[in-house]
Specification:
This protein is of the alpha/beta class and 331 residues long. The protein has a single domain (64-315), classed as NAD(P)-binding Rossmann-like Domain (Rossmann fold), CATH 3.40.50.720. It contains eleven helices and nine strands. Helix 4 crosses helix 9, helix 6 (132-139) packs parallel to helix 7 and helix 7 (167-196) runs parallel beside helix 8. The model has no long low-confidence stretch (mean pLDDT 87).
């Protein structure tokens, strides 16, 4: 393909342009525009990353040290890392999770390291709405600056919907932990934030909520709810001094992901959260970690059918591997 300086157009000497004729010029222009737009998006992603390094993140939005942060699902992984990183900023921490012994251990560790107060609330989020009157009573009257809706539940391993063991109970557990918890905890904490005209709500979703993930169907759908819920609430309450962010990690090395080894694209929970906190107040919806942003950028640009197909292949492989391990244990 050559450029003709006399006409200012691309010469249609190639076989492709020979077939397309003059319309080939329009395709060339569209191609240039597409590549330019793609390059611009990549550049903006990199610029946002650089800005996040200089941006104060959550620390810049906390103007009342000594107030409280509430973190659900806080005894392991991402939730524990959020509790620790926020305590480091000087906020007292309310820890809400299922296992009391783990709660006590995390609370003791945080008080010792960061010299802040802690309070624990034992709650099993699979129990639906029964747990929230107690949580509401315990939090009543507290000056809460930050709410981290982190508690999450996924599949034991990827599986077709109709083949999920104890399917209907599992579905309700997934909905109660991943959806009901976000709506109810926000309902409990947000009124005080609006009254004080200050507060930050961090809703931990997943990249699987950005595109459908077959064989994790209910989990993926629940995480999509978190994304829409966060977006709508920010529109409703942003003018009231409230910052609501949806965080969408890809794989992080945690007990939930069953990944132990870290890498550039699979960070530790601590590394991930430290990065994600820098985006608070800068990005309303974030992948939280620069390599994940690159992955998310690629996912958003590729056709949906291709993403779903590749996801299906990956989940089938993971499912087969998990079932082999189960069989080996039985033998």
């Amino acid at each position: 393909m050559n450029f003709d300086p006399t006409t200012g157009k691309m010469a249609s000497s190639s076989c492709v342009f020979g077939v397309l004729g003059k319309s080939g010029d329009y395709f060339a222009v569209l191609g240039v525009l597409f590549v330019s737009y793609f390059g611009l998006k990549v550049a903006l992603t990199f610029i946002r990353f650089i800005r996040s390094l200089a941006h104060g993140g959550l620390a810049s939005l906390i103007n009342k040290p000594g107030t409280w942060a509430v973190v659900t699902g806080c005894t392991d992984g991402i939730g524990k890392a959020y509790a620790e990183q926020i305590a480091k900023l000087g906020l007292n921490i309310v820890l809400i999770s299922r296992t009391e012994s783990k709660l006590n251990a995390v609370a003791s560790d945080i008080e010792s390291k960061y010299k802040v107060k802690t309070m624990i609330i034992q709650a099993d989020f699979t129990n639906g709405t029964d747990i929230y009157p107690n949580i509401r009573t315990k939090l009543q009257g507290m000056d809460i600056s930050v709410l981290v809706n982190n508690v999450g539940l996924s599949y034991d391993y990827p599986e077709f919907f109709l083949q999920i063991t104890d399917r209907e109970k599992k579905c309700m557990d997934l909905i109660h932990v991943n959806v009901t918890s976000v709506a109810m905890m926000t309902s409990i904490v947000l009124p005080g934030m609006v009254e004080r005209r200050h507060g930050v709500v961090l809703n931990i979703s997943s990249a699987s909520g950005k595109r459908p993930t077959p064989l994790l169907t209910v989990y993926s759908a629940c995480k999509a709810f978190v994304s829409f819920f966060s977006d709508c609430l920010q529109t409703e309450y942003g003018s009231s001094g409230i910052t609501i962010q949806c965080v969408m990690p890809f794989f992080v090395a945690t007990n939930m992901s069953k990944i132990r080894k870290t890498s550039l694209f699979v960070p530790s929970a601590s590394t991930y959260v430290q990065s994600a906190l820098q985006t608070v107040g800068l990005e309303q919806e974030t992948y939280g970690y620069f390599p994940h942003k690159l992955m998310g950028f690629g996912m958003e640009w590729l056709p949906k059918w291709l993403i779903v197909l590749q996801g299906m292949k990956g989940m089938l492989a993971a499912s087969a591997k998990a079932k082999r391990r189960q069989q080996e244990k039985k033998e």
